[in-house]
Amino acid sequence: MKKKEDKxxxxxxxxxxxxxxxxxxxxxxxRLKQIxxxxxxxxxxxxxxxxxxxxxxxxxVDYDKQLFKDYVIDQIKKDKKVLETQSAKRxxxxxxxxxxxxxxxxxxxxxxxxxxxENTSCTLHLIRG
Length: 129
Hints:
Blueprint: E1 2-3, E2 9-10, H1 15-35, H2 40-49, E3 51-52, E4 55-56, H3 62-73, H4 86-102, H5 107-118
Antiparallel strand pairs: 1-2, 3-4
Helix pairs in contact: 1-4, 1-5, 3-4
């Protein structure tokens, strides 16, 4: 991980894992919101990991950034016909997969999954450069 300006970090190794976790959590929160409004602690987790107001907590490379925001995070883009990069296709496929897998899951299942992710840890190595 490489520190950038303004408390941002660039991921050197583990970017695919981080992207997949964010995609999964976005699908999980979307399903949970279909069942009921998020509770305060869940909203805090959403805001810490996914999006707080207009601040996206995780971003991809510039050429995929808008699609990631529109399709995965905000879920305002539904058209899958114009996907310009392989990574964009992967984002859409992964989000659709997780959404379909979570579509019939109940609140208890979703909360167990959320708690599991919240209790994971990540090794961080800062590189100055």
